[in-house]
Design goal:
mainly alpha; two-stranded antiparallel sheet; 8 helices; 2 strands
Length: about 160
Amino acid sequence: MTSSAQAMSGERVSRYAAYLVMGWQSYHRDHPTGDPCSWHRAGFRRYWRWKSRSLGGRPQIDADLRALIRRMSVDNPLWGAPRIHGELLKLGFEVAQSSVAKYMVKRHAPPSQGWRIFLRNHAPEIAAMDLFVAPTIGFDLLYRPDPDHAAGSAGPHSKEMLP
């Protein structure tokens, strides 16, 4: 026997030997203790139960106070967390400003304008120009307006030039 088998108790050794001789499928068919998938699921459940346990921390705010914070933020849309926090302190509630900000109703700003609206609003002010780029002897780039694509002229690929 190996040293690991000698360290096991007698019952565990016999189970281990039966497992090795019979193979895991026939062993578990004769000994219905579940299959590896059920063992994995059980271990998964145990791990996440342990992982999500309460570790203490600050006590939760009462539900009535949370409702009051929400109601104050809805009734007074211009008030931020500092103002609501100050009002709650005046009323005798000991609560942190960060907690007030956490429980305030989140306001969603209207979406910004899309490209279509932007172009409709700013089209008269937009200027577009094609540039002709020519490298110089000193390997600088020289930018000039492209004469083939000037505004109003027919370029090499325009419909006016096609037969």
